[in-house]
Amino acid sequence: MKKTAILLLLFLAGQLAARAQQTAPPGYVLVDSLIFTPLAAVDSTLDGSSIFSVMPSNVSITQSGAIRNAIEMRARSNSSRQVSGYRIRIFFDNGQDARGASEAALYRFKVQNPGISAYRSFSNPYFKVTVGDFRNKSEAMAALASIKQQFPSAFIVQEKFRYPALENRNAYRVDTLKVLRKVN
User: Fold this and answer.
1) What is the pTM of this model?
2) Does 63 or 172 have the greater pLDDT score?
């Protein structure tokens, strides 16, 4: 009983501290800001390769066969594993012309953004078009800013999908930070 009461008090104290961090002083408002941190470029030539197959011939590795099998099994299981990530929904409708409109939205997006993956789905009675495979919400927010120029009603949704591939052209990490801005 005492442990439950202590845990409840700790939880409430944490909630009050979080709420105190979320409130802004009078005349100011908290807004999300994005921070871009450069990362090392990813060498995609090794994608899908075993580390043992690319080792130089003069390197000798002594290990149990069970370890090698465990690593290979883990790599195979990760290829089908799903992760909870984010996508941007650019179309969501159930009208009579929703099928054609969803196809048009998908086509228009693919033409304007050839490097970003796009998906069209049907969940009775809605046709949906979602784009991107973002590992965290900050990456989705960064993409949403540019996508909203083409699709003003776009919004972020959380979905499950297979691990997205790492790309050299996006060699940065995006984080979200709350910043105080003065209200006019």
Assistant:
1) 0.55
2) 63
